[in-house]
Amino acid sequence: MQAAFYLAGAVAVASTALMVTRLNVVHALLYLVLSLIAVAVAFFALGAPLVGALELIVYAGAIMVLFVFVVMMLNLGDEASEQERRWLAPGIWRLPLALGAVLLGGAVALVLPGDEAGAVQPVAPKEVAVSLFGPYAIGVELASMLLLAGLAGAYHLGWQRRARQPEEEVRDGLDTAGARPAAGRGAVRPGPRRPPRAA
Amino acid sequence: MSLTVIVQIALVFVVFTALLLSAAAAVYAERKVAASIQQREGPNRVGPGGLLQPFADVIKLMFKESLRPAGADRFLFVAAPVISAAAAFAAFAVVPFGASTTLFGLLDEPVRLQVADVNVAVLVVFAIASMSVYGIVLAGWSSNSKYSLLGALRSASQMISYELSYGLSLASVLLLGNSLSLTEIVNAQAGTWFGIIPKWFVVLQPVGFLVYGISGIAETNRAPFDFPEAEQELVAGYHTEYSGMPFGMFFLAEYINMVTVSAVATNLFLGGWHGPLLPESLGWIWFLLKVAALMFVYIWIRWTLPRYRYDQLMQFGWKVLLPVAVLNLLVTAAGVVYFGA
Questions:
Q1: Before B54, cis peptide (omega within 30)?
Q2: Mind giving me the DSSP string for B321-333?
Q3: Which candidate from B72, B148, B160 shows the least CB-CB separation from A62?
Q4: What is the pTM of this model?
Q5: Of B76, B131, B149, which is closest to A190 when you measure between CB atoms?
Q6: Helix H segments across B93-178?
Q7: pLDDT tens-digit profile of A17-72?
Q8: Interface list for A 12-51 with B (CB within 8 A)
């Protein structure tokens, strides 16, 4: 189990580093997904299968699919990669690297002294639930209120958009006939690259 | 190496092969059932009654050239079908399909008929199912084709929408079974009420079963929810640009996902391997029969119902299925608290 934990940790660190340095957004997102899966595996190795499964379902499964969905819908293409290349200049790395080094130092200092963290002690889902809805009930309630506010807000925004819809529908209908392709930016551009231009 | 370990490794191979064969059988059944619904014969040339047709199809797929569009993302185009197939196989690993057995006294300690016994098996199935969307989404994006991309976008939004009610219908069964382990949930369904009604959770959870079934069909992209590959609008959706074995892998994944959804439904709602007449050691026969029955319903629905419109799908998912699933969960929770089950 120790080996599995360190292996998963190494994969998580490597894929996160690759995620930051990728120029193509979809590739970067995939490395982020891989990093989340690696963290889930680390949870499994530490004897917390519930947290591992939730990590997969909530982060890798639901949230990242939404990210991928939006990125694919925007489908940024070569221009965005070029911009990304300019932004990832070597000079930009100095401050994040320094801050990361401080964090790493803290983490090393925490791990170094004792090895009592080495023992694997499985935590059953029920214990998680009991502490969540026992001493931490107020936190759960606050989180649910926050989510409810978010839900109400999203509903409100969606409602306003709906009221204007008929007008937009007509405009889009005219648009797709020629205006939008002529402007050089279609609503949906397929694939990772633009199709090869005819010679 | 003890005999138990060898048996467990053998079990992995048995499950893998059985899944492959079940996909072949499902394809054959699909074509035969479709044919009889449409008053045709169906495949009848290869082997007796066309039984060898799926194998002929697989051989054909293997020898076909697999093409890659010029503008495709090279790595992801190849990886997408692999992700799909791998996720489909992986999900079945935690599904138990029979009671513990000593293989007629051959082993010292009983072996569970299950590849991996995880105490949160239900959540693992759910997690891997939510991973399988990446195969489809990446296939659509990396193909560099309009139809593929639209199919993939539809698939992503459909799976996100129906995953919620899928999860909530699972949760109501977890409340009844009082566990996250599929084995314990199945064992909670042993026995009968009044000697005739089996103690299956479908009796206590008819609404949950219905919600699970509908969102299971939507999750596996089957008709009437097969928008990601709606051929009249999207050619073939996310796998438009695929041919040969990569296409075969998507095909395989679809059928194995159906088998997994049916197997999980059998375990959660239909009492798993528990049934009358047969002894506990032959319970896996009941399991197979129940899964086969659910697969038949799957196929039956596909060839009977026309496809919905896309907005109908979303309206239904968010405005009907999700509230029903939430209500069902609340009522179940109240019932569990009241009756102390």
A1: no
A2: IHHHHHHHHHHHH
A3: B160
A4: 0.77
A5: B149
A6: 121-142, 146-177
A7: 888 887 777 788 888 888 988 888 888 888 778 888 888 888 887 788 888 878 87
A8: 26, 30, 33, 37, 40, 49-50
